[in-house]
Each structure stands twice: as C-alpha cells, then as structure tokens.
Amino acid sequence: MLLDNLIAQWQRIWPPCWLSVYWLRFRPGASLRAAHLKAGDWAETWAECYLRRQGLRVQARRYLCRRGEIDLIMLHDAVLVFVEVRYRQAGGALESINSQKQQHILRCALRYLQTQRGAAYRNCRFDVVTIEGSQTAPVVDWIKDAFRPPAPK
After folding, report:
1. Residues 39-143, CATH architecture
2. Which among 13, 82, 87, 151 counts the fewest CB atoms within 10 Å?
3. What is the pLDDT of residues 124-142, one digit of tens each?
4. At 139, is the secondary structure helix, strand, or coil?
C-alpha cells in the first residue's frame, strides 16, 4: 500500500522517472540484493530524477573502471558533470566523501575523458548530491562544484 502511494506521488511529481523507480523494486532478482545496494540504487535513481528536473541530461550511469566508479555523468549546458550520490538515513552524507574518495572519482573521471570521443574537450565539474532522511521523506541537497582536481605542479 505504501509503495503504491509512493509510486503515485512520483508519477505526479516526476513523470519521466517513475518507471525506473518502479523497476528497481520489481525487477527480477531485486529481492536477492543486499539492503544497502537497494538503498544505493534508490538514491541514484532519485538523484538522477532530481537533476533531470534541473535541466541536466544523462550521459552515463554507474561508470565503472579499475580506478573506481562514478554514479552519474551528466551534461549541463556545455559542461560535463560528474556526480557522486550519497545517501544516509541519519545524516553525515557529505562528510563521507573524504579526500581518498575524491581521488577515486578524479581518476575515474580522467579515464572517462580519455576513452570517450569528444569528452576531453568539454569543461568538467564535480558535483555531489546528498540525500538524507527516510525514503518516504528524503532531503536532497545538490552541491555544485563540490571539489576540484588539484592544480598541476
């Protein structure tokens, strides 16, 4: 019952995304995944929908390389945006992105820029979307240009 109400709310608020949220819940093998992975999937989908509403376009989702993972790669006007999504129920989502995690994201972004045609010529930005609270009433915070790569020496 709660899930049906939640889906009905998403259909009214974010029409292009409600099917992907519904798919997360009912796809084959969904019940076999660990709870933290389900929560991460939910948070990434929620962040993607939120950023789409702000005018960004999805380029890639869960970009994996040996050096790490980037949750979302989006295009905002002519700027390529690498987005890290963090979800915590009890706060502290932003604090969980330490310098080591930033280095993993930067290395993975560099790999993406090297392998994707035309991507190396775009301006880049590193954003963070934090989602805190329960899944029924999340608080979303979008931090543009949350961190930058170190200046070359």
Report:
1. 3-Layer(aba) Sandwich (3.40)
2. 151
3. 999 999 888 887 888 888 9
4. strand
